[in-house]
Write a structure and sequence with these properties.
This protein is of the alpha+beta class and 192 residues long. The protein is built from four helices and ten strands. The protein is globular, with a radius of gyration of 15 Å. 40% of the residues are buried.
Length: 192
């Protein structure tokens, strides 16, 4: 079933996280990206058709901005017991297959997703230098089966604005995708 972003209020401080990268085993937190002008936090997974539809563009984002002053982290919060395709070994395979240049972490407790009020995959959050939310919403207008090309237009425009020290357009469209697969009894109020 498709879900949409909750649209966390702009200006919200980036919630803390402490997660292990499924590829390198290194632990990442907000301080891992200190000194970066921007931070992109992406809630994604391996099995969702909405993520599969844009996965190459997500990899391109990492490659295109690798040398820029932006930190990027991907997080999967899906329950790996109910959705084994989203278990850490499968996430590691996905990161390798796509050549991700950013950490891909597993939020096993789902507490990070709750802190960000993440509701779907993909759910994208862009923070400025002060780690205040400046963009949350869709990658672009493309969806599986709608015939529109995957360009990353909306997210890329927001990233470019932050990197240039310019304001980000406040008229933002929510992301749409598969609902986060919560562990039984762990669903947050906003996801019910």
């Amino acid at each position: 079933m498709a879900a949409t972003s909750v649209m966390l209020p702009l200006g919200t401080p980036a919630p803390a996280f402490h997660l292990r990268d499924v590829v390198s085993g290194e632990t990442h937190n907000l301080d891992s990206f200190s000194g970066k002008r921007a931070l992109l936090v992406m809630f994604i997974c391996r099995h969702c058709p909405y993520v599969v539809h844009i996965e190459r563009e997500l990899a391109r984002l990492g490659q295109d901005y690798q040398e820029k002053s932006i930190g990027i982290i991907a997080i999967s919060s899906n329950d790996p017991e109910s959705y084994p395709d989203d278990a850490p070994p499968k996430l590691k395979e996905m990161a390798g297959r796509l050549g991700f240049t950013f950490p891909f972490c597993c939020d096993e407790t789902q507490e990070v997703a709750k802190a960000y009020r993440a509701a779907c995959t993909p759910d994208l959050y862009l923070f400025d230098r002060d780690r205040r939310l400046v963009y949350r919403g869709q990658l672009d207008d493309s969806r599986p089966g709608n015939g529109k090309p995957v360009t990353g237009r909306d997210l890329r425009a927001a990233i470019e604005a932050v990197l240039a020290g310019q304001p980000v357009e406040s008229n933002q469209r929510p992301s749409i995708g598969c609902s986060i697969k919560w562990k039984r009894g762990n669903e947050p109020d906003y996801a019910r």
